[in-house]
Amino acid sequence: MVKLTLQALERAIANDELVLFYQPKISLITGEVVGAEALVRWDDPESEIIPPNVFLPLAEKSGLLQEISLRLLDLVVVDIASIRSVKSGLSVSMNVAPTDLQSHTLSRHIEQYLHKELLHANELQIEITESAVMGNFERIRDNVYGLSELGIQVLMDDFGTGYSSIDRLSQLPFSALKLDQGVVQRMGTSRQNLNVVKASLSMARELSMTSIAEGVESAATYHFLMANGCSEAQGFHICPPLSLAEFKQFVAKEHNFSGSHLGCVHQAILNAHYFRKCLLDLVFCTRHGTDGCLPSIIDPDVHKNVKEARIGKWYFGSGCQLQGIVEYNKLEPAILELHNLGISTLSLVHSGAIDHESIIAELNVKTDNLVVLLEKLESTLLLGENSS
Fold first, then answer.
1. 334-349 per-position pLDDT tens digit
2. DSSP 284-329
3. pLDDT value at position 388?
4. Distance from C-alpha of 225 to C-alpha of 217, rounded to nearest angstrom
5. What is the pLDDT of residue 102?
6. E strand or H helix at 44, and its extent?
7. Closest to 157 measured CA to CA, from 135, 137, 140, 174
């Protein structure tokens, strides 16, 4: 192995020996390839491929990390254009360090690429670890918001290893939580880790974030995540990291990865109960007027547009792929009825003319109607997939 010195690392940067490999990400809903994570390696000509955990600590200690990040960004943008020529619509994520986000250098480079139309915003994602976020919250917040305003998705990596709180998560515009590979891998033998994964998926749903599982190394793990509403997965069960040429060959082929809406329907059932609870809180807390009620209760999570509302987003989005299923086609009236009840309840609360008893009764009926239909769809999907 190459002797790890600052001089050797500087030489590696100058000679473009830092290369990127791409680990595919799969949608657990459709089974399609949706993108990849870019992973840096040191391809030393006199030795073997050197993993990042060996040389990145030296880069960080010596102040070279930001230079490396900018070099890798340049590589990612070039590679994205090459990948786009084979298959469009894929997104590539790259990891950054807190130091990259404490200044605006990286985001300015991204903005320049977007302005020159060498990159589309949906093609690049930025990953930052949970521990880095919690340890540098104030220093990176503005830059994270800046990236989000550019249309760049920011992902929290290694979720489940740090000390995140829902409060902190809600203060940054993360679009996805990436479940730590260690937690994902241990859930097969540890009920506690299994519950951590379930809780993480629930937290992502509560915060309207995508959930991505790393370290998926078995079919059993893949199927469990799919059934519980995890959005995407990556790991050796799917595919190891690939060179750019290998990744382009991979995405050009047809694959038969499993995908299912079963987990989405499960999440939709939880969302219906969540919607009911929001309105019940509103009714309960405003029984004696709105003066002593939290403003967030008076303005609950109820969107005017049902397609943007939590109970309608899946149905009017990716759920449309299930239009051939009878139980799915019966959902829309029930979704609209519950959604419209939420809108009218808000209006009545603000006017002070709410009949609490009738609202509660109507809310229970409409929620039950929707949940029953969703459970029938859930059963149909489960039985249909078992028989296929």
1. 999 999 999 888 888 7
2. HHTTT-STTS-HHHHS-S--SSTTTSHHHHHHHTGGGGGTTSHHHH
3. 41
4. 12
5. 83
6. none
7. 174
Question: What angle separates helix 105-115 from helix 137-149, to the nearest 10 degrees?
Answer: 0
Angle (CA) 383-385-386 rounded to 5° is: 65
Write down the H helix ranges in the chain.
6-14, 52-62, 65-84, 98-102, 105-115, 130-135, 137-149, 166-170, 181-186, 191-206, 219-227, 244-252, 262-285, 295-298, 310-316, 326-329, 331-351, 356-387
Alpha carbon of residue 147 to chain centroid: 16
Kindly give the interhelix angle for 6-14 and 52-62, rounded to the nearest 10 degrees.
100
Q: What stretches in the chain show pLDDT beneath 70?
A: 1-3, 161-168, 288-292, 298-301, 385-388
Query: What pLDDT score was predicted for residue 385?
Result: 62
Please give the Cα distance from 385 to 258 (Å, whole number): 10
**Residues 266/227, Cβ–Cβ less than 8 Å:** yes
Beta strands 33-43 and 49-50 are antiparallel
Spatial distance between the Cα atoms of 184 and 347, rounded to a whole number of angstroms: 44
- Beta-strand pair 232-233/18-27: antiparallel
Query: Which single residue is written with the structure tokens 């990744």?
Result: 247
Q: Under a CB-based contact definition with an 8 Å cutoff, are residues 59 and 66 in contact?
A: no
- Tell me the C-alpha distance between 7 and 11, whole Å: 6
CB atoms within 10 A of CB 114: 18
pTM: 0.88
321: Cα separation from own chain's centroid: 20
Token pair belonging to 361:
């009764």
Residue 100: the pLDDT is: 87
What pLDDT digit, counting tens, does each position of 65-97 carry? 999 999 999 999 999 999 999 999 999 999 998
